[in-house]
């Protein structure tokens, strides 16, 4: 009976906006955990030192923070979107921008490693999206040839220049990756740390 009542409630159109906010919170939490857990697992075991317990704690904390923040953001965004639509009687494009700005300020405004990674991830996609939109709207002409090779060259040239000469400007996880690839490959003592391991163990 309780299950039937719950299912009946979910079918009520008048509660759709409120229920969408709740499901958005759920989906944000689940998606955040799915995205962060494998990433944190790989990065922690590749680059972080410490005991197994410390590593597992770090993975759990990063996963929880990402999951929580994404859940809070979706909840805030969809709630504000519904409120604006209800107040104005219809939904307009600016509602989405304003709701997301407020949500971004409240949820992702704290400058920490998790939020920083999410914002940088979004920024790269935004730049691609705005470039495509500018071409679609005729603001810039359609390129005669694919500009991606030039973009790839500039991105890699810039990031390696920053790594070599202004390393402190890069995010710590990127610094770790770059160090592993471009500096650790300069050091070895014998076959063990040339092919099998990145660095010699303390016993050696």
Explain what this protein looks like in three dimensions.
- This is PXMP4 protein.
- It comes from Cisticola juncidis.
- It holds the Pfam family Tim17.
- One of its GO terms (cellular component) is peroxisomal membrane.
- The protein is mostly helical.
- The protein has three domains: 1-109, no CATH class; 114-142; 147-190, no CATH class.
- The chain is built from eight helices and no strands.
- The chain has helices at 2-10, 16-47, 52-88, 93-108, 113-136, 148-165, 172-183, 191-196.
- Helix 2 (16-47) runs antiparallel to helix 3 (52-88) and helix 3 (52-88) packs antiparallel against helix 4 (93-108).
- The chain is flat, with a radius of gyration of 23 Å.
- It starts with a helix and ends in an 8-residue tail after the last helix.
- The model has no long low-confidence stretch (mean pLDDT 91).
**CA(first)-CA(last) distance:** 68 Å
Helix-and-strand structural type: mainly alpha
**Which sheet architecture does the biggest sheet show?**
none
Mean pLDDT across residues: 91
Helices, by number, come to 8
InterPro entries: Pmp4
Pfam families: Tim17
Protein name: PXMP4 protein
GO cellular component, one term: peroxisomal membrane
Gist of the model:
This protein is an all-alpha fold and 204 residues long.
Which SSEs are present, and which pair or pack?
Layout: H1 2-10, H2 16-47, H3 52-88, H4 93-108, H5 113-136, H6 148-165, H7 172-183, H8 191-196
Helix pairs in contact: 2-3, 3-4
Which terms would index this structure?
204 residues; mainly alpha; 3 domains; 8 helices; PXMP4 protein; Pmp4
């Amino acid at each position: 009976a309780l299950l039937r009542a719950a299912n009946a409630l979910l079918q009520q159109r008048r509660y759709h906006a409120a229920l969408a906010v709740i499901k958005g919170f759920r989906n944000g939490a689940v998606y955040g955990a799915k995205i962060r857990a494998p990433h944190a697992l790989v990065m922690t075991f590749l680059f972080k030192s410490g005991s197994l317990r410390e590593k597992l704690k770090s993975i759990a904390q990063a996963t929880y923070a990402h999951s929580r923040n994404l859940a809070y953001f979706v909840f805030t965004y969809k709630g504000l979107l519904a409120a604006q639509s209800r107040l104005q009687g219809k939904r307009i494009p600016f509602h989405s921008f304003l709701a997301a700005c407020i949500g971004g300020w409240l949820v992702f405004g704290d400058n920490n490693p998790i939020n920083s990674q999410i914002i940088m991830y979004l920024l790269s996609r935004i730049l691609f999206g705005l470039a495509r939109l500018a071409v679609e709207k005729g603001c810039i002409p359609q390129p005669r040839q694919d500009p991606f090779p030039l973009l790839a060259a500039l991105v890699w040239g810039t990031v390696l220049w920053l790594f070599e000469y202004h390393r402190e400007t890069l995010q710590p996880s990127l610094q770790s990756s770059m160090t592993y690839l471009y500096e650790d490959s300069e050091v070895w003592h014998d076959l063990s740390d040339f092919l099998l391991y990145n660095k010699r163990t303390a016993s050696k």
